[in-house]
Amino acid sequence: MMGPSASGGMKRSLISKDQITPVLGQTLKDESLMLRTWMVNLVFALLAMLPFRADAIEISLDFEGAVGMSLDGTDLFIYSNTIQLDSFELTLAATGGDFNKTSSGFGINAPGAGDDTDAFDNGLVSESMRIAFSTTAEVGVRIVSLEFDRLTGGGGVGEDQALLSFYDENDALQNSVTVTNANTAGDDTANFNSVDFPELIFQPGSYFDLSVVDGNGFGIEVLVVDIDGSYYTGGSGGGSGGGGAVPEPAAACLMLIGFAALCGYRRRK
Question: Which of 105, 134, 166, 191 could form a disulfide with 118 if both were Cys (CB 3.0 to 4.6 A apart)?
Answer without folding.
Answer: 105
